[in-house]
Specification:
125 residues, elongated
């Protein structure tokens, strides 16, 4: 339960952080470069968060799906509401898909690496 609450708060924090990072990057780099930089930072953020939440669990990749979904719940909810409410067209949908891809790719990669590391430590002992 502690990990689920931690994942939820990290997910909420991610929304605030990436609104700030995306806006700052947009002012500094321009549209496309800012989107790419934010995409990479989001994937890295979710990788680190999920790795920290799943470390020590040799079966994290298969069993930590509730934690992964809670970690990504804020981003999923915000994008879902944005797509329904705002009528911005195909460019916005492509950006939303890119954001979801970054979040889920980072989260899944974090769980995978954490489980591999736990297995290797278990084999070494």
């Amino acid at each position: 339960m502690i990990k689920v609450l931690g994942a939820f708060f990290l997910g909420v924090l991610s929304f605030v952080v990436f609104m700030f990072v995306g806006e700052t990057a947009d002012n500094v780099f321009g549209d496309i470069a800012a989107f790419i930089a934010t995409f990479i930072l989001m994937a890295a953020y979710f990788f680190i968060c999920q790795f920290r939440l799943s470390r020590g669990n040799a079966h994290a990749f298969r069993r930590d799906w509730p934690i992964m979904l809670v970690l990504n719940a804020t981003i999923i909810g915000v994008l879902f509401v944005s797509v329904l409410v705002e009528k911005q067209g195909a460019v916005f949908l492509i950006q939303a898909l890119g954001i979801l891809l970054a979040c889920f790719a980072g989260t899944i990669a974090g769980a995978f690496v954490a489980s591999r590391q736990a297995r290797r430590r278990g084999e070494a002992q």
